[in-house]
């Protein structure tokens, strides 16, 4: 169904253009969804930063509903990835600028793309910039191949937010566990992505 919608909605090179609100990534920017983005998602091909950013926008609504916006925040993957994010200095500057907006104890999620996706966490305590702590979230279940990385990172961010209790963050999410993601788990986020796009931007 998603693929059929993508074929009809994006005929003749049509794109969906919209503004990403400043609350999501700390600044406002124009962005778009291409037919190729939808087809990739529909056929389980590798997804890029823009698809992940759209899902983060959906997750921001979840954070708002759960009253968690002061607990969890996002960094724009399109500004820190190896493709299109500029050189290392530019990417580092963007991360620095984003962390300067942090509230005490706030957790930032950074889906980082350098050919594959990793995920990191930063926590900024009351004493300021020197107290930022970087953590590699090793708890993401292993994926069958590099093509599933984006889907697994999106699902992992979703699971953290749906947990709602971050008091045991280190125990639950930083360490490699025995959990596995099934195709049903991935299909759930794909459906959420599609429903959100249709409801919000179409």
Automatic annotation (TrEMBL):
Name of a matching Pfam family: Peptidase_C48
Database matches in InterPro entries: Papain-like_cys_pep_sf (IPR038765), Peptidase_C48_C (IPR003653)
Gene3D superfamilies found in the cross-reference section: 1.10.418.20
UniProt keyword terms in alphabetical order: Hydrolase, Protease
UniProt-recorded Gene Ontology molecular function terms: cysteine-type peptidase activity
Ubiquitin-like protease family profile domain ranges (all copies): 122-195
Top-rank taxon: Eukaryota
Example GO BP: proteolysis
Keyword presence, Protease: yes
Family classification: Belongs to the peptidase C48 family.
Name of the protein this chain belongs to: Putative Ulp1 protease family catalytic domain-containing protein
Organism: Rosa chinensis (China rose)
């Amino acid at each position: 169904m998603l693929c059929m919608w993508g074929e009809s909605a994006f005929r003749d090179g049509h794109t969906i253009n919209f503004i990403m609100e400043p609350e999501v990534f700390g600044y406002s920017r124009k962005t778009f969804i291409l037919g190729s983005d939808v087809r990739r998602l529909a056929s389980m091909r590798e997804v890029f930063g823009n698809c992940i950013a759209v899902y983060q926008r959906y997750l921001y609504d979840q954070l708002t509903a759960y009253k968690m916006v002061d607990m969890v925040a996002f960094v724009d993957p399109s500004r820190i990835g190896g493709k299109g994010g500029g050189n290392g200095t530019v990417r580092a500057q963007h991360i620095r600028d984003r962390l300067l907006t942090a509230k005490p104890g706030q957790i930032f999620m950074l889906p980082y793309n350098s050919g594959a996706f990793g995920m990191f966490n930063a926590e900024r305590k009351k004493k300021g910039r020197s107290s930022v702590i970087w953590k590699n979230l090793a708890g993401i279940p292993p994926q069958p191949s590099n093509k599933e990385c984006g889907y697994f990172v999106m699902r992992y961010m979703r699971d953290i937010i749906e947990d709602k209790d971050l008091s045991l963050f280190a125990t639950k999410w930083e360490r490699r566990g025995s959990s596995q993601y099934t195709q049903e788990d991935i299909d759930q986020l794909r459906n959420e992505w599609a429903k959100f796009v249709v409801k919000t931007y179409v």
